[in-house]
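Fold sample X.
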Amino acid sequence: METSRATHALAKASAALVSETDIAGFLATLLASSTDVLQIDAGGILVEDHDRLDLLAASSHAAVELELHQSQLEEGPCVDAHVSGRPVRAHGPDVVTRWPRFGQLMLDSGFSSVHASPLRWHGVALGAMGMFRHTGTMFTPEEETVAQAFADLATLLIVQTDTIDLGVVRQRVQEVLAARIVIEQAKGVLAWNHGVEMAEAYRLLLRRAADEGATLTATARAVIDEAQRRHVT
């Protein structure tokens, strides 16, 4: 995989997210880019449709058949990636061991390896992107990262299709700026309490947020609230 090609493809796809885009066209382009960058022979996207997965987009007719087989049989890499919310990979005889019906259909269609990346949104998998190769070559760790990036971009477009009023956008910007002020205030509190520089105070804030599993803004508000309570008492 050439890093420059991956960078160009992902940058092009990201740019489409901030302009008016034909969703179907975007997904087709995204799949075409993924097949080129990751050297795969077929790719498709399955998404939730009530109580089943349905085909949203595919790079070729072969990809359509592979994805529809998974949907109809309710077994396969995309099904597992959707259920688990984690990437799924298999090659060679292992595909039949894991998915007896779909795996055999996949091998019979001339594909020997597969990688499926979940379409993740706020901790929930909405579907999965399947990527198939004729060869048994498995994805490298770098390729897995790029594959997930393509899947994440597809998810972003799917969930953010509504046109947002510019006034709403500006309001969100103001909310982010307000949160930033809270973070700066919390850094000041920690710097004073611990007798450290602001850079170290920021590291302390980040560490606390990670340790508590909280957002940075929520942690900053907690730091300020604690300081205010101590001042009152």
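Fold sample Y, listed below.
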Amino acid sequence: MEYKSYVNADYYLNRYEGDIIPEEELSKALKKASRHIDSLTYNRIVSQGFLNLTEYQQDIIKEVICEQADFEHENADEINMILSSYSINGVSASFGSSWNVYADKGVAMKRDTYALLSQTGLCCRLVR
């Protein structure tokens, strides 16, 4: 069975009113963002089935996927950087979690987007 994004191009373009990702890259970007959301929610969406979630949870997940796809598209170079930190002549830089970026399980996202995803109750580390 082929993995499908929880959001389609029509939703991104018309409901979310996204305009950052070119249409020819949109399907791949939404699929990648959906997989990252699955990682951050411990695959609870997969195990429960997207349509078995509450309407509230579904709406938040769709919004988060669109925000995440935009974030990943806009910051692809930084996200894909191999180095976690470096220093040259007393000037240093580091990559990873910062005050406005959350990083977990190899996924970087804006903290406010993660806070929104957390409202679904699917990000809790406790086993039910």
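Sample Y note: The helical segments are 9-15, 23-40, 44-48, 55-74, 76-79, 111-118.
Also: The chain has a mean pLDDT of 89.
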